[in-house]
Amino acid sequence: EAGVAQSPRYKIIEKRQSVAFWCNPISGHATLYWYQQILGQGPKLLIQFQNNGVVDDSQLPKDRFSAERLKGVDSTLKIQPAKLEDSAVYLCASSLRAGSSYEQYFGPGTRLTVT
Amino acid sequence: AQTVTQSQPEMSVQEAETVTLSCTYDTSENNYYLFWYKQPPSRQMILVIRQEAYKQQNATENRFSVNFQKAAKSFSLKISDSQLGDTAMYFCAFMERGTNFGNEKLTFGTGTRLTIIP
Question: To the nearest whole angstrom, how far is the Cα of A37 from the nearest Cα of chain B?
Answer without folding.
Answer: 10
